Amino acid sequence: MKLDEVTITRAILSEQSKVMLDYVDIDAAVVGAGPSGLVCAALLAENGVKVGVIEKKLSIGGGMWGGGMMFPRIVVQEEARRLLDHFSIAYTAFEEGYYVAKSVEAVAKLSAAACDAGAEFFNLTTVEDVVIKDDRRVSGLVINWTPVEMAGLHVDPLTIACRYAVDATGHDAMVARMVACKGGEVAVSGEGPMWADRAEAMIIGHTREIFPGLVVTGMAANAVAGEHRMGPIFGGMFLSGERAAELIRKSLR
Ligand code: 48H
Questions:
Q1: Where in the sequence is the domain holding 202, given as residue range(s)?
Q2: Apex CA 23: angle with CA 207 and CA 177, to 5°?
Q3: What CATH number is associated with residue 242?
Q4: 190: Cβ below 6 Å to ligand 1?
Q5: For 128-156, what is each residue's pLDDT tens digit?
Q6: Ligand 1 within 6 A of 36 CB?
């Protein structure tokens, strides 16, 4: 087969333009493709929700690649083991209730599950603002190419509409901060010091709709609540992503 460069270009532009046009209006926009965002997106998509994942970096996976201090392993506790099974992530038992998985496999399997279920990924794309109108609800996200921000270029962004936005941006809780700084009745307390047991126990309760149309999940949920951090144990991230998906799914029904 003789290959033609222009056909390759047309294939990419044609397919991605179609997807981008289709995804200017979606059910759920998950901001951040770390573990909580990936679990949330995969479970939403598995339930027929039209979901787009917006990730500012080139790579998907957030803080999970690095495991604990660059040892590429994560720990997951008993309560979340069923989610490792659900996504076919292999693990070994350490001590009772502690399971160890490969961080690279976990990212790969969660990303694959989200893709298989129909979620669309928009990487290299930064959410820089939210849409809030008279109804006082987050009804859209303002996005731009990450390289525009990195180069400090003055290029106006574009906007997508969503029924729900999910702040899965990790420690910085970026979307919640945007809502707070634009006058939304949201306070971001910032995360507390390390206390794994408490942080993991509390994260599910902190996973909630903090402003109409905005659900927080993962480390962002703890950061908003002023809750502790937990280090490289990821069960809470998985369970929080699941909880966020559940909240949105019920509300969209
Ligand atoms: C688009 C954005 C934007 C933006 C950020 O940090 P993450 O892995 O998030 P979680 O909450 O799913 O997982 C947290 C976990 O990785 C972790 O750090 C833990 C458990 N720490 C415990 C501890 O004690 O330290 O991923 C967030 C993602 C990243 O990929 C960012 O690039 C992305 O969000 N992101 N994407 N627009 N404005 N801001």
A1: 24-70+104-252
A2: 35
A3: 3.50.50.60
A4: no
A5: 999 999 999 999 999 999 999 999 999 99
A6: yes
**CA 34 to ligand 1 center in whole angstroms:** 5
Residue with tokens 């927080």: 216
Percent of the chain with pLDDT over 70: 100
Ligand 1 site, residue 229, Cβ cutoff 6 A: yes
| 84-121 tens-digit pLDDT | 999 999 999 999 999 999 999 999 999 999 999 999 99
95 within domain boundaries: no
Distance between CA 152 and CA 81 in Å, rounded? 43
pLDDT tier at 220 (50, 70, 90 boundaries)?
A: very high
How far is 227 from 240, CA to CA, in rounded Å?
14
> How far away, in angstroms, is 36 Cα from ligand 1 center?
8
Q: Which letter does DSSP use for residue 121 in this model?
A: E
Q: Is residue 2 part of a domain?
A: no
Residue 184 pLDDT greater than 90, yes or no:
no
Ligand 1 atom having least distance to the Cα of 220 = 11
Amino acid in the structure at residue 116: D
| 6 Cα to the center of ligand 1, angstroms | 37
Looking at the structure of the chain, the number of domains it has is 1
